[in-house]
Each structure stands twice: as structure tokens, then as C-alpha cells.
């Protein structure tokens, strides 16, 4: 399993819209059987326009395939309207010690 943190800064006034889109994307990914396990949305307590999406994936290959998919492209194309700056992500692998 891998975990991915996706970091976004939302344009002012689009916070609720971003949160609703997140819910829809998570529901869609869970039904799509693409290796997505779960996702949670976090808001920065010091800056409520900054978000982190914490997602769990079956493996790195599943996440990479999603990043190349038409669905991801459609989501990011729409996101350009409500996202400020360039989002980024970090990938972490669970260590079983």
C-alpha cells in the first residue's frame, strides 16, 4: 500500500466547491476499482484555503495509472478554475517494522 498527500491552495470563495468536488471524486474512485482505497480531506487551520488530500492506494502502479487517466485530466482541467498556484503531491510507502 502507498499513501499520497496532494496539496492544494484554493482560490478565495471556492472552498465549499472544492470540498464538494472532493467528495464526488472519492465516491467515483471507490466504485471504479482502480486500486484506490480511501481518501480524506484536511484543511490548514492557519490558512483555510490550503488543503491536503490524504489518499491510500493499493500500490504505486495503481496511482500512476490514475495520474495518466482521462478522469484525472478532466478533474485537473476543471481544477484550474478554482486552484491557485501549482498543486503538488508526495508519495509515501508504508514501512512494516
UniProtKB/TrEMBL annotation:
Assigned keywords, A-Z: Monooxygenase, Oxidoreductase
SUPFAM superfamilies: Dimeric alpha+beta barrel (SSF54909)
Pfam families: ABM
One Gene Ontology term of the molecular function aspect: monooxygenase activity
PANTHER family, per the entry: SIGNAL TRANSDUCTION PROTEIN TRAP
Annotated ranges, domain ABM: 2-92
Record protein name field: Antibiotic biosynthesis monooxygenase
Keyword presence, Secreted: no
InterPro entries from the UniProt entry: ABM_dom (IPR007138), Dimeric_a/b-barrel (IPR011008), Heme-degrading_MO (IPR050404)
Lineage: Archaea, Thermoproteota, Thermoprotei, Sulfolobales, Sulfolobaceae
